[in-house]
Structure formats: C-alpha cells, structure tokens
Amino acid sequence: MADISSISGASEGSFRASAAQRAVADSKDVGRVESARRQREADSVSLSEAARSAAKGDVRTDLTSRVRAELDAGTYVTQEKLDAAVEKLVDRILQG
C-alpha cells in the first residue's frame, strides 16, 4: 500500500505537529469563549431615577392612541410633517 505522506508531501511527524498546533489553537479558542462568558456574567446595569420613572409607565395614552389611529388610517405621515423633519435635519447638519 502506498504511503499517504508521499501523496501529500507531508511526513507523519509534520502531521502530528500540525494536529498538536490545532489542538493548542482550539484550547485557546475555548479559553477566549470562557473568558467572554465570565465577562458577560459580570456585566451590570444601573438605571437613573429618571429612567426608572419613565419605565413605570408615565405614558400619554391620549397621544399614543391618536398616533396609532393615524398610522392605521395612513394619515400620520403628511407633507407638512416631512417638511418639518427635513428642516430640523438640515438645521442640525448646518450647526455641526
């Protein structure tokens, strides 16, 4: 039977070395993944009092109901609103 190493041009020793190199690289990847997992577990969030207040549901239901109805009816987006939005955008761009 023909020697496989003669087909690929690699010797058995170089195959073992490359397998060992892959094993080391794989173990480094596992270490990186484990490190990232530990870092995510250590992350935390702190909310300001204003954010907590906003999250409690101080919502203007009259406004949101009106806007939802306009969106459903297809009347929310008007040329007047688009012009106002473009004007504000241009002002912000020019102010830098």
In short:
This protein has 96 residues and is an all-alpha fold. Helix content is 76%, strand content 0%.
Outline the secondary-structure elements:
Elements: H1 4-8, H2 12-42, H3 49-55, H4 61-73, H5 79-95
Structural class, by secondary structure, is: mainly alpha
Separation of the first and last Cα atoms:
76 Å
Major β-sheet profile? none
By DSSP, the count of extended strands is: 0
How much of the sequence is in beta strands? Answer: under 5%
What integer value in Å does the Rg equal?
A: 31 Å
Mean pLDDT: 78
User: Treating each run of at least 4 consecutive H or I residues as one helix, how many helices?
Assistant: 5
Give the low-confidence spans: none
